[in-house]
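Exercise: predict the structure of this protein bound to 2,5-dideoxy-2,5-imino-D-mannitol.
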Amino acid sequence: THVYQPYRTAYHFQPRKNWMNDPNGPLYYKGWYHFFYQYNRDAAVWGNITWGHAVSRDMVHWRTLHTALKGDKWYDMKGVWSGSATFLDNGVPVLLYTGWAINGTDQSSIRGQTQAMAVPEDPSDPLLREWDKSPHNPIALAPPGFNDSMFRDPTEAWKGYDGVWRMLVGAVKGTDQSIGTALLYKSTDFNKWNFTGEIQSVAGTGMWECPDIYPVHVKEKTGLRLSARGPHVKHVLKVSLDRNKHDYYSVGTYDEKTDLYTPDDTKLDTGLGLRYDYGKFYASKTFFDQNKNRRVLWGWANESSSVQDDIEKGWSSVQCLPRHIWLDEESSANLVQWPIEEVDKLRRNEMTEKNVEVGVGKVVPVKAAKGAQLDIVVDFALPEKSEGLEQNPNLLAEMGHLTCSDLVTKGSNAAGPHSFGPFGVHVLATGDLQERTSIFFHLIHDGKHQNWKTLFCGDQSQSSLQQDVDKTVYGSYVRVDDSDKVLSVRILVDHSIVESFAQGGRTVMTSRVYPELAVKDAAHVFLFNNGTEPVTVKSVSTWEMKSVNIKFYKP
Ligand code: DQQ
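Solution:
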């Protein structure tokens, strides 16, 4: 094309053109990873939604196939919306999805959103190219009293102790439609599904999109199938909140007898207090990868540019790198996420520097790192534990209000004396730093246990000279254990996406940025210290990342 394309990614999954949103029905079958996605074949904006389909041997290199599902039945004519894949007992995967029904047909009593199923036309085809819609469709309808335009995104189905299939569908209830919920449906034959209750509901959260429920192993990184039960199992429930476009999860218990899910920590914001990602990451979905016995998370990163820009560049959205996820063995309270190991195959030209001192107010170039396709791992030395701060046990309460945005606008002055930082890394930066995306830490002394509370932030405010892009500052806390030797961050840069994993993946943050000057070889990396104490970088390693192959389908 003749359009200037500095923002297309080189090693993230993107269709050749047009609009993409939610990941749908990821699965592994006969040696191939399948990835489906909400896709508008006609434009770079949302609409006419179908299921795009791509396959891969390693979730790194891809080949797109023709559309898997499109709206061609009365119950999905207005769109084939999000859903999931389930393996039936015979080992064949089926797709559950939401159809947006057309009004005023002979089935005119059914409107709005319905749940439907598609089965492979030829299960012996490892690429699963053709899908047949079930004659039983729609297989589930909104229960009486529920809004049928707020009834969508079926989960993978699982079989309970009683041999009965279960699935969840996202919904909302209450007179003011503000109580988010996931509806439980059961089936004995997979063709006819009955509403039997709600697995959980949380007031004030609004519509729950794309629910995802799955077991996690309490001690091991190994993934579990949906049907896993036993003392080694906890559950995670994730929902995507339509009202603020963030994915929230909790760790808890799924009682298979009552079919109720209870989060462990109900204090945490009514039990939905954790986010997969503190930046741009939505409508995510996990799957059990039986090839490598792990659970993998896919999430969608929307653009932060204007609709006009999207139309001009001819595409919108990328998928974040697939992430291996598991329960944090140290805390059992949160997940850990890490780019799947296959991503490391793209690394080349490693450069490592050790023991780099970054003085107060200093910016130090990472000379080896150039370009907009990088993998960067930085280990910062932790500050010495301070003495004599116990006199002020209220310190953290006083400092607790401090946010990443305060630090960006006021620097370390915002934090006062009992803090350390901010310090971190500028990526996609011009040599003169007029453009830069900054990933940084800031530690606050808790005044009580001689511990530090650590903010992990992403500052997009200086990311581009362009005005009409979203430059929101992101951030959250990251847990640092007494046994941790360093404060570490891994940053994956790919032209217009920056994915940052703090402390081995305990806290994650994805940014979309559109530098005007800091593109391709004009993009640099710096270490910086805006705090009041010198900082030691124990090591900084950088790799250039190869571009992946995406073979696009040609009819
Ligand atoms: N996107 C789909 C819906 C889902 C929403 C439509 C979440 O099924 O609720 O494209 O981004």
